[in-house]
Amino acid sequence: SQTIHQWPATLVQPVGSPLSLECTVEGTSNPNLYWYRQAAGRGLQLLFYSVGIGQISSEVPQNLSASRPQDRQFILSSKKLLLSDSGFYLCAWSVRASGARSYEQYFGPGTRLTVT
Amino acid sequence: KNEVEQSPQNLTAQEGEFITINCSYSVGISALHWLQQHPGGGIVSLFMLSSGKKKHGRLIATINIQEKHSSLHITASHPRDSAVYICAVRGFFGNEKLTFGTGTRLTIIP
Asked: Which of A17, A24, A87, B43 is the most buried (most CB within 10 A)?
């Protein structure tokens, strides 16, 4: 069966510090991978998605970046955190879609980031 | 106006009541997802549907493509159903993006 891991579970970082959140998926190959953010009191927002190694699409311009160094590894980074980066960060995966077909997305446990 | 609107935003009901949560969207879609987010933040996918109706246990999801509307129903509600229920839609043809509603917070009182 497939599992998705995220770490750390919680993180408190000062403004201006760097960030690295990691997500790994087990039990599947060639997944689509996603990073979402949920700010306090707001809905989920797609930040990045990846359909393969080194292939990253950004949905929202910001001071965050994403990388996919391996097939089942997705990393969210920042060089300098802002207060507005606080939120709940979720990684998700889905079977790689072909054409118009849709697949369910499976979410990791999330990382709660507080920037102070 | 958001592309995905959910109603109600908050819903409190007694245990055993029949629950309906609504989702309306304004764009063409290839699929609609219903997700459940528990207080700790974890998200579980409940349904993905593109037409008709699906049922898992006490949960039923329906979608009307012509009216751009979906409903999530919970029969015989239980306190453990208390969570935020989120509707999300996917566009067409290679667009991997899901657009999310802001969620419905459901509280079931024993």
From this structure: B43
Contact A88, A112 (CB under 8 A): yes
Q: Provide the residue count of chain B.
A: 110
B93 to chain A: closest CA residue: A100
Q: Is A96 on the interface with B (CB under 8 A)?
A: no
Is the CB of B102 less than 8 angstroms away from the CB of A32? no
* Residues of chain B found within 8 Å of residue A49, distances taken between Cβ atoms: 96-97
* B7 Cβ under 8 Å from any chain A Cβ: no
